[in-house]
Design brief:
- Helices cover 32% and strands 34% of the residues.
- The chain is α/β, with parallel strands linked by helices.
- The protein has one domain: Transcription Regulator spoIIAA.
- The strands form 2 sheets. The chain has a 5-stranded mixed sheet.
- Strand 6, helix 3 and strand 7 form a beta-alpha-beta unit.
- The longest helix is centred in the last third of the chain and has 16 residues.
């Protein structure tokens, strides 16, 4: 048993959940944002920053690759939805690539249907 105070085991159940990690690739007209780990309230601002950096370049297509994203909460989804609206208003499109079922469920709950989903 780990260190104990008042009979409570204070060992951690495991490593902390992985925070979102973001990799931007692509060209001036075609940007790809690869997202891994988890995007939640703690990592939303960094996720939003990455999305904003892409959106200001006004690419024709923004691909948000979610194949390695393990978790997305409503805060993270809202960041993506707002960016998609901005990019679309500027004449571009957003492609959401390979969302995990748990991530797709968040989109479904929020009523968000990306223009294109690649699986």
């Amino acid at each position: 048993m780990g260190n104990s105070r008042d009979g409570i085991d204070d060992r951690r159940a495991g490593p902390p959940p992985s925070c979102g990690q973001f990799i931007v690739e692509g060209t001036e007209r075609h940007a790809v944002l690869r997202v891994t780990g988890e995007v939640d309230i703690a990592s939303r601002s960094e996720f939003q920053d990455q999305l904003d950096r892409i959106a200001v370049r006004v690419p024709a297509t923004v691909v948000v690759d979610l194949r390695d994203l393990e978790f997305l909460d409503a805060e993270g989804a809202s960041a993506l939805i707002e960016t998609a609206r901005t990019v679309t208003a500027l004449g571009g499109s957003v492609v959401v690539r390979s969302p995990q079922p748990i991530v797709q469920r968040v989109f479904d709950i929020l009523g968000y249907e990306p223009a294109v989903i690649e699986h």
